[in-house]
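Input/output pair, single chain:
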Amino acid sequence: MKFAHVAFPIPEDLTFTYSIPNHFIPIAQIGCRVLASFGSSIREGVIVNLLDQPNVDNPDFKIKAITDCLDSEPVFSGSILKLTSWVSRYYLSSWGEALKCAAPAAIRTKQRQTIHLTATKDEIEKLKRRAKLQGRVLTELTNDGDLTINQLARRVKKSSSSLRSVLALLQGKKLIDIRVNFRPNSQKKYATFVTLAKPISEIKQGMTSTLQRAPKQAEILHNLISGYNRLPISSAELLKTTNASLTTLQALERKNLVELQSIEIIRNPWDSKLIEKTEPLSLNSDQINAVAEIHRAIEANLPQTFLLHGVTGSGKTEVYLQIIATVLNKKEGAIILIPEISLTPQTVSRFVGRFGENVAVLHSR
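Output:
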């Protein structure tokens, strides 16, 4: 059996020992996020060390097991773990809190409680006669399956806070089970795209025989055939162009003339903005000296701190841009910190204009 030290985002600067179930051993690595029982709740933590034997003084102490492993490979590298450990000591915080700050917002999880019915039909009928509100709660769960506390409160017309005491009673009687689920903080975005389900020759034959009384369906097919080289096409764009309804499109799908595909959309806040592409500018003598000195440090692979002095509009950003171009040519990356959120559109436009789709925008929250 293997064991892990897990750091949680709590004020206490401690790590906690958990056993790793056999089916998680291949993926539970240092730097992976896990779910584990902590007090009376399930919490997300990070594995910061692996052990063959637990380092506990009391041999009779029962060690809890990790309940889930959220990652198939580490999301925190060794260097990030080392950095966050230093941050926690320097700023007098816990390691888990430092790791939480280092994690991109998109990979953080949200906790969601759902109420699951475990009572039998006989138990529900008996309770309905003795405690009406408890009986109504169980009836709603019977009809609709698992519900969140807010969903259940709306159905029985009670506030969420007043319902919690009722749920505690039902849980004590083992008539319900309160389950905790974790889901990503950021959900993937999908859109529906349309393509032809058959070769164009077969589609045209079908149009003459089956679509004489369905002009909108025929118009959609004509549009897809004429724009065949652009397929698949967004269903929203297609319906807007043809002024047709989703029902019409679904009718074509049922006839096996078109195929609807759900495709993940990569979010890009700058897609709709026209940003002019820029080329490197000629540098003045001060800029040339700054670029040359920073270049020497990069080529020597010696991490150094440089401070550029210059009033607004003096050309500091062009120095950053040209240095970053050098770094990107070495197949490495660069991070730009924007000190004020109101400067984001202007700053990002400069970098997108120079580096195009290589630019990603992250917010600390």
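The chain has 13 helices and ten strands. Strands lie at 2-7, 15-20, 33-38, 41-51, 66-69, 109-117, 176-184, 189-196, 233-234, 258-265.
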